[in-house]
Design brief:
With 219 residues, the protein is an all-alpha fold. The protein has one domain. The chain is built from 13 helices and no strands. 20% of the residues are buried.
């Protein structure tokens, strides 16, 4: 697939872009059947597939569970996205949509969990570290949880917190970027409170306990 081929697709095959399910089938077939692709194909594939899902499918400009079911059935296999372009397309779909159902966010968070635990999927192949957590992993999680982090943001659902807790546990054996601990503490504030609750009570005036037990000194 050359840059000239993409110009022909834009001009003749999809002059108004990918508009129908049949167009999507053609786009996916081209992506599967062409072993060599120019760099321009990545942008074209991602933009066309994401544009179709968000701008052509109901609800326009947003996503619902029907969209998520389609994405999972077409782009996922055994719980993971295997192709880098398909992974990029789903992330771009989430960027464009005004609303993203929690189920899709959980599927995408699970890509990191599976990458850590099993080394499967397109995301596993593009990570900077095979174990631990890198800056790219933090950026990936924050991209998925857009608008759900930071002061004043709504609390994450128990299901998302459960996946993040597993990710944190699975990555504990490797090196982790310094921002990961800060991120985890921001989504699990109860950990900080629990840690604070275990601190021994300290007197502001540092005197030995024997001072209060010595009758002569307190008399």
């Amino acid at each position: 697939m050359s840059a000239e081929d993409i110009l022909l697709l834009r001009r003749y095959t999809f002059p108004e872009g990918v508009r129908t399910p049949d167009d999507v089938v053609t786009l996916m077939a081209l992506n599967t059947c062409c072993p060599e692709k120019c760099p321009e194909w990545t942008d074209y594939f991602v933009e066309q597939l994401a544009g179709f899902i968000v701008e052509r499918c109901h609800p326009i400009g947003s996503l619902d569970e029907i969209n998520v079911d389609w994405i999972e059935s077409v782009l996922f296999k055994d719980g993971v996205i295997e192709g880098e372009l398909e992974l990029a397309a789903v992330l771009h779909i989430m960027d464009l949509a005004r609303h993203v159902p929690p189920s899709l966010k959980m599927l995408m968070l699970d890509q990191l969990r599976i990458a850590l635990a099993e080394g499967r999927g397109a995301y596993a192949g593009k990570r900077a570290f095979r174990t631990g957590i890198g800056a790219d992993d933090i950026a990936y999680v924050q991209r998925i949880l857009r608008g759900r982090l930071g002061q004043g943001a709504p609390l994450l659902s128990p299901a998302k917190l459960a996946i993040l807790e597993v990710i944190d546990r699975e990555s504990s054996s490797g090196a982790r970027h310094g921002d990961w601990q800060h991120f985890i503490e921001s989504v699990f504030p109860h950990r900080n409170r629990a840690r604070a609750g275990t601190e021994p009570v300290r007197r502001w005036l540092q005197v030995p306990d024997s001072f209060f037990l010595d009758e002569e000194m307190v008399a």
